Amino acid sequence: MPHRIDLFIDREDLTARFKDLQIRLTPKPLKMLALLAERSPRLVHKEELYQLLWGSVEPDCFPYEKQIADHKAKILAALRRALTDPRRATEDDVRNLIETQYSVGYRIQLEQKSIQVLGQS
Fold first, then answer.
1. pTM of the shown model
2. CA-CA distance, 44 to 21, in Å (whole number)?
3. Rounded to a whole number, what is the largest CA-CA distance in the chain?
4. Mean pLDDT by 10 residues, the chain (121 residues)
5. Is the domain 7-116 a CATH 1.10.10.10 member?
6. Where would you tag: which of 40, 52, 69, 102 has the fewest CB atoms within 10 A of its CB?
């Protein structure tokens, strides 16, 4: 029996689903979610995430920590908006999806076998 896919991301169509709930995200938060998903369960350091999203790490020039935190907030807000059917996902599912290790980085709290990411990074 195939394993259930809890998080599905299609970079080409700019779509994502979490526990069968459609998630509406703009391109940058979708890319962040895909990058975290591909590396799950590994912790992705803030600097690495910023470099993957924007192509460089210049902490003196860019408030990268705030930008990453803002994108995480957008992902979680989009997930919460999708929570129309509590039988499929709960607020706790959303709150626990992305773990924050303060001053270090982020990780997706799902097993890799329950994640599917399509398209090129």
1. 0.79
2. 25
3. 51
4. 80 86 82 89 87 69 70 78 63 77 86 88 70
5. yes
6. 102
